[in-house]
Write a structure and sequence with these properties.
This protein is an alpha+beta fold. It has two helices and five strands. Helix content is 23%, strand content 45%. Strands 1-2-5 form a three-stranded antiparallel sheet, with no helix packed on it. The protein has a two-stranded antiparallel ribbon with strand order 3-4. The two termini are 41 Å apart.
Length: 110
């Protein structure tokens, strides 16, 4: 086994996470003159490299008595949510709710 670098570790974690990203399904139920639409997006959290400090932040430190490393407390990474559209579809005017649900079921069977 070779040396594991930070980049290698991050890439392997991304590979695992990419396989199991949550999805967000948006449905716009149309009207008589407005077609219905369906959008499916993958949702991912990206680290901005910034930190958010709570009311009493404590930086990571070395305990001089025990020699143990104490992790930071009340300090959190600032994340940004990214939506990647994987499927978007507009259904024709006059599509009934029954046909709309059949289209969704046909695209993503249970």
């Amino acid at each position: 086994m070779g040396i594991i670098t930070r980049d290698t570790l991050i890439e392997s974690v991304r590979t695992i996470l990419d396989e199991k990203l949550p999805v967000c399904v948006g449905v716009d139920v149309g009207q008589i003159r407005d077609p219905s639409a369906l959008c499916v997006s993958e949702v991912s959290q990206l680290d901005t490299g910034k930190l958010r400090f709570g009311p009493s932040p404590q930086p990571a430190r070395l305990d001089s008595k025990s020699g143990l490393w104490i992790p930071a407390e009340d300090i959190y990474p600032v994340m940004v949510t990214e939506y990647t559209v994987r499927h978007i579809r507009r259904l024709p005017l006059g599509t009934t709710m029954a046909h709309f649900s059949q289209a969704v079921k046909a695209r993503w069977p249970a």
